[in-house]
């Protein structure tokens, strides 16, 4: 009897175990997919077994922490297990092995670079710091002067001398299901005959997700894991046979061994398989998934099946009553004059299902180019692997030449039909890939030295080369790269998140019941079947809300009507989450659709559906300006949304108290006061009865500003009704469906300019898809959108302009705040029309940008004065130090020599506004206690999300009190200790909370000053004891009134923001015009940081935001059905960047300036770096512009968009195919921007 194993700490997205098999090999595995019963005979090590702060931490844990490879810490245990397992097998790994080992891990915070760097410290090759990318150590300068050397020294973000050495010896029948493990092959055949519907389970990589996400149920499992007949490799002169029980990792090892021993002509199929095995899933899945299971379970998506088919592979089967004959045929046969290749294209280079894959083979008549045998198999174009057999048959006897290729392309398109409403969409793109991959195969056989043949390599990311100010006093913690306060606990798995909190007596689990319709009346709800299930305590609906169920426009439980798919209609409380989830499925809701159902921005405009009145900023006389320009261009830009994909999904633990209607909520949020407010409203109690406690959360990025308040109210109502603690942890799919994300945007522009590139007039309209409820209206009801961020950027204010913002009301879940909040979308529109102007003027985009930049002290459109000098300096340094112009020339030369691959460069400037233009959102308090032993407790209103806010507050307190950081502790953020706290957002966390902590510490030091003056040689503890004896209070509430910002929308003016962050970024890409794939070759980022309080944390913020921006602008695609159903609700369907998306060369430089407004002259950098991802977007467009194209700029520049923008004979063939009448089918997905 068995249940599927669950994570011992559920806060790890892919929690890894190291499994030691009898052969002595160690494998990382994905815990949530490993059935407990499958672990018989294996030694299992969890991250807690690797090392602990209670005993001894492992060098892997230590180095990941000290290299600043953790931020929110939620993914850190998985990273530790991947590197740890590699080191158990390879104590001195290569950088390539490090990259490969981490390929299956996801991180949303760090940008991966410091994680890889921590792993590379175990490599044999040198890891000295590379001064300015030169490859030389900063200490190896020619000048021997100690002073000069100190001035030039590149001060690293960590000290390798502190690392521990690696010691390889340091390692450490269910309720409804029957698990059967056969001892022999005959037992297996007997069991399968007796239980014909029972699945065979080995790796569980296909069955596990089906059980978890598709609600499959099997009462009996048969696991033949230990059968030797399924675990073998048999090589003969004719071929090789491999047991179906071999894991994909073992298959990879076996094939490598065979390839190294056999002649090249005998291993065509082997090498094709190895190529695809490198990118198939991640290392953890490859260690678990079996070759036989993969072949059988993934008939449509498999990367291996088309190659096996093309390589004449066979599958040996056996059933009861028939003699096994495993050696009668070979898995891979050896043939002369036989060529086999595998080809694929996926949304992401590694760990992603193929959009289209193919296996192709050809055999020629001896010593000729006459086709004797030809096979072409395609995956992801039908329900199974599809053979183009008729095409191949017609080509037998033909010469391998261009005419053959042309006929083959036409015939294969006729033979392989993809319906217009096919699941997965991208019909024209997939058709194009069918013949583009065929063309690549054609070139490979010709053995032409064509650049188009080569796939982009998976490179090992480089080290970062930023400098820390060497003049900062060592004893002063401010300005130094202090390790994240919780980093060690992150890496040992001992950092406690909401769902790590121990179970409470009588605790219940909550599962949501969500709407399946976008706009409908609720006719009836039947909960009887759900209530009858075991373990179910209650079903909670709108009738159970004692207070306001509709608070400030937010509906906690839908009643009478639903307004989007994913709206919470009810919840089920049960003794286990499995019981609650099962019961939620049994609730029957009858709907009656309501028209109109509005999903897209275009539909909202058609129905005049808006959330609130438009916001407009005007400068100059636009109408008049248009009369005195040369050309006028008009266009529109679509920018799709983005999912936060924080590692820890929304998590709440609600604890009702026995008296006075009190309730305590432990949760991950950016705004505890907001949660307190909503819960109090839902329960109809004063806010002083509700305590919200927040210690840390596994990422937020704006997604935990507003939505936790709604979910907190939902869970509090359940706790109130049942009178029992409620644990409400959203599954990934539910979280993505309910909480939504970044606003999709449609930008329309009309630009008037002179022939020299000077822009004179701009009329721009922005429409965002706000969803069904105006959450922004609540959060920003006095300011709406940040107009500077949405409408105006560093290059758009030197001319007459009209900028309008409208938020469209649609029947989608309400979109919400996301890192940069509007800036990443709105500035794409500005950069797009700048690029369009440059094209019209036949000028480089960077020249038009520079022409229209601010040159001197200026005023924004809302009449706020600012100095653009830091922006100009960043722009200049970026151009020079990235060798931008030399790179452009090199790219032009590359493009002349390569028809099917193109390179492009782009540089983008930035002026990013910090803060909220409403003063009362900037106020904050802090509480500082000094205890009699000299230890200090700091409490403030900010939330630790990943950004190292607690770490920086410790640095501030240490600096102000002049005591070691070890004396200072931060526990948690709570509405009990610091009431009425504002949201931790807008890059303001350190700014405002630091000021409050500083104020409290300075007040304390003022009280202590007379005592210190009398005993200057005394110790801190002595001064504290003396102060207590003299009855001096050692507790202070610090307060920061906030930046006095304001914005008058009626007048269109105000002192909207306290300051700006400036910068510039340059990226270079290479694009495969045949597939739409791209590779990021280099990125240089120059960010105006003024004075960095903690360079390591700030660089981590910039890098993490940049990689998140790459995802937003290139590969992250949200797919919606025409009915408003979100398809992309899992890591399988929604692809965030992995380690392979890091630039091959990556440089981040903090540019120093003065910022007297902020604490210690620092600047908030958490959000601004998101926009740097657009440098990759525009570099892609620059590369595409070098190819024949149909140019319509939109975001993201996903592979489909890139490929279909490049025009060639293959896209022409696709567009010549007669199309189905659009009225005869419903497309699988639609664009909602």
UniProtKB/TrEMBL annotation:
Keywords: 2Fe-2S, FAD, Flavoprotein, Iron, Iron-sulfur, Metal-binding, Molybdenum, Oxidoreductase. GO terms for molecular function: 2 iron, 2 sulfur cluster binding; FAD binding; iron ion binding; oxidoreductase activity. It holds the Pfam family CO_deh_flav_C. The keyword Iron applies. [2Fe-2S] cluster 2 binds at residues 72, 75, 107, 109. Gene3D superfamilies: 3.30.465.10, [2Fe-2S]-binding domain, Aldehyde oxidase/xanthine dehydrogenase, a/b hammerhead, Aldehyde oxidase/xanthine dehydrogenase, molybdopterin binding domain, CO dehydrogenase flavoprotein, C-terminal domain, Uridine Diphospho-n-acetylenolpyruvylglucosamine Reductase, domain 2. Binds 1 Mo-molybdopterin (Mo-MPT) cofactor per subunit. InterPro entries: 2Fe-2S-bd (IPR002888), 2Fe-2S-bd_dom_sf (IPR036884), Ald_Oxase/Xan_DH_a/b (IPR000674), Ald_Oxase/Xan_DH_a/b_sf (IPR036856), Ald_Oxase/xanthine_DH-like (IPR016208), AldOxase/xan_DH_MoCoBD1 (IPR008274), AldOxase/xan_DH_MoCoBD2 (IPR046867), AldOxase/xan_DH_Mopterin-bd_sf (IPR037165). Residues 172-350 form the FAD-binding PCMH-type domain. [2Fe-2S] cluster 1 binds at residue 32. Mo-molybdopterin binds at residues 670, 701, 819. Its cofactor is Mo-molybdopterin; [2Fe-2S] cluster; FAD. SMART domains: Ald_Xan_dh_C (SM01008), CO_deh_flav_C (SM01092). Substrate binds at residue 821. The active site is at 1167 (proton acceptor). Homodimer. Belongs to the xanthine dehydrogenase family. This is FAD-binding PCMH-type domain-containing protein.
